[in-house]
């Protein structure tokens, strides 16, 4: 199959209407989209990504007006959704029967999100179905934040990549659920806990899960680079691996001068939002060079630093025995 990169919404729409899968831009990362109401299209997404079918997919919609079409959201939930959507936030909601079980991996809840990207919003508006979309990478690798990244991972496997430029947020959406007047955060992501907290009185409870499949055997972890990645105290790690060719992933430029170490600062000024937007491109960039190891620090646990720490700590485990 020939994979085309373009900006033609009509082309994307026609392919999606034929149950094909198409990569789409969002403000967080690129998604691998298909008709969320078609089992055929959903099955194709799992197959192209090589993703286990027990890992459910997010449903992308155009407007909060559509939430009640697919879920039993009450007025409180709708009011909450209207405050934060469109944006890098996904809500888990009790699903209606029209939502295929294949999409939710058998769960009675569906994850819903409105992506804040003009091309994709236009595409969603032109369709008469919502879009299922996981990140557009082969399962286990770093998520794509440009059309070029999508091509690198899925060339020949999908017909079309809708090019919407580089994703501005750069990490996946924050996944939340309203439960007994509390806001449960299931995945840290592009909308910071502080931002959510500044707009709601609900107590926020972190309940993030290990996304690695809970089965035995050799399993690739999430967000993993091919180059082994270790997170921890930078000075002692540099000492421990002093005979290796090291890529040092850090928040700010640093004054370490060692011939075996190349520094990849994510922000000149130490800005965590900027750092998040550069994280995945930098991990991919490092992976294309011949480093023995990636060493990274713990980022400050605030703002998007939390999502960065989450992704980096998951990337640490190369294989699970
Ligand atoms: O920013 C994002 O969320 C991107 C863009 C493309 O929208 N999408 C994304 O999808 O990151 P994915 O599939 O890579 O990650 C979705 C996460 C998975 O950890 C999945 O287990 C969880 O959402 N999820 C989806 N549906 C769920 C459900 N019904 N119940 C619990 N977790 C769910
Ligand atoms: Mg993903």
Overview of this protein structure:
The structure is a single chain. The chain is built from 11 helices and 17 strands. The protein has helices at 9-17, 39-49, 67-70, 75-84, 101-104, 118-126, 147-154, 193-199, 234-240, 272-287, 305-315; strands at 4-6, 22-24, 31-35, 58-60, 89-94, 109-113, 131-132, 160-162, 174-179, 182-187, 204-206, 219-220, 229-231, 246-250, 261-265, 293-296, 319-320. Strand 2 (22-24) and strand 3 (31-35) form a beta hairpin. It starts with a strand and ends with a strand. Residues 26, 28-29, 31, 55-58, 90, 92, 104, 107, 109-111, 113, 115, 133-135, 172-173, 175, 211 line the site of threonylcarbamoyladenylate.
Q: Give me the secondary-structure category.
A: alpha/beta
What is the string of SSEs from the N terminus onward?
Answer: EHEEHEHHEHEHEHEEEHEEEHEEHEHE
Low-confidence parts: 213-219
Which small compounds were modeled alongside the protein?
threonylcarbamoyladenylate, magnesium ion
**Strand portion, in percent?**
15-25%
Shape: globular
How large, in whole angstroms, is the Cα Rg?
20 Å
Q: Please outline the major beta sheet.
A: 11 strands, mixed
Give the strand line-up of the largest sheet: 1-8-2-3-7-4-6-5-9-10-11
The N- and C-terminal alpha carbons lie at a distance of: 35 Å
Number of helices: 11
Report helical residue fraction. 25-40%
Mean pLDDT across every amino acid position: 94
* DSSP strand tally: 17
């Amino acid at each position: 199959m020939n994979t085309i990169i373009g900006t033609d919404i009509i082309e994307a729409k026609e392919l999606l209407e034929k149950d094909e899968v198409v990569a789409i831009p969002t403000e967080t990362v690129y998604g691998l989209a298909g008709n969320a109401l078609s089992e055929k299209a959903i099955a194709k997404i799992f197959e192209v990504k090589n993703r286990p079918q027990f890992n459910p997919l997010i449903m992308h919609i155009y407007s909060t007006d559509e939430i009640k079409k697919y879920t039993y959201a009450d007025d409180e939930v709708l009011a909450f959704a209207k405050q934060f959507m469109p944006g890098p936030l996904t809500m888990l909601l009790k699903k209606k029967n029209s939502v295929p079980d294949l999409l939710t991996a058998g769960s009675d809840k569906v994850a819903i999100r409105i992506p804040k990207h003009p091309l994709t919003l236009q595409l969603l508006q032109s369709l008469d179905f919502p879009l299922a979309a996981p990140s557009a990478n082969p399962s286990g690798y770093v998520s794509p934040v440009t059309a070029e990244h999508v091509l690198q991972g899925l060339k020949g496997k999908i017909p079309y990549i809708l090019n919407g430029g580089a994703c501005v947020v750069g990490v996946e959406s924050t996944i939340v659920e309203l439960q007994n007047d509390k806001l449960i955060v299931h995945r840290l992501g592009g909308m910071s806990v502080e931002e959510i907290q500044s707009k709601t009185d609900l107590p926020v409870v972190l309940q993030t899960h290990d996304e690695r499949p809970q089965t035995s055997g050799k399993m690739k972890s999430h967000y993993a680079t091919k180059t082994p990645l270790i997170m921890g105290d930078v000075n002692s790690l540099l000492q421990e691996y002093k005979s290796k060719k090291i890529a040092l992933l850090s928040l700010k430029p640093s004054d370490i001068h060692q011939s075996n170490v190349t520094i990849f600062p994510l922000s000149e000024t130490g800005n965590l939002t900027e750092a998040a937007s550069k994280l995945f491109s930098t991990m991919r960039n490092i992976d294309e060079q011949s480093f023995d190891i990636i060493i990274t620090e713990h980022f400050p646990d605030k703002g998007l630093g939390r999502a960065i720490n989450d992704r980096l700590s998951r990337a640490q485990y190369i294989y699970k025995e």
